[in-house]
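ok so I'm stuck.
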Amino acid sequence: MAYHFIGEPGDTCTVTYRDLHRMVCRFTNAMKRAGLQPGDSAVIYMPMVPELPAALLACARLGVVHSVVFGGFSAEALRFRVEDLEASIVITADGGWRRGKEVRLKDTVDEALSEGCATVKNVVVLKRTNSQVPMKAGRDVFWNDFVYQLTLNQRVVGWQQCLHGPPVSPSGMLEGRPLPSGDSPAFIP
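replied:
not stuck anymore, here's the structure
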């Protein structure tokens, strides 16, 4: 088990390492399909949900610089961080719960982006509270629509793509060079 999630309203979820790997690969592919590439940047403004680690790890896997912004920050604080990072994507949720009250994160994102943040091309919105949120055409997309639009012949991004030769090789090869002794191919970006 990778982690066990217990949400504030009492929902629970157990995420295995296999589940987490699949979520990370799917989100990585979705970001690639949206045109993100190594060196781009993302702001993650999400509540504590099982998808949060997947978004973080997908950014790291693709080489997208990312900043996690606490869900209690104001629109002004969020805007400052988006502009400072020159983020091209904001990953958020419709809302979350804090001390029994709903915190409407998407509304805060919309307010922050209305005051600038010209570099943001995509806003990915996870449905957490199932609140109605305005979606800007061409920019905003729900998490499931963003992640599950793979074509049938599209492969999942994985560390095996970095290896030449059999992926189960104990030493592995990176761009034709043997890996340093003791390094695991699972940790090659």
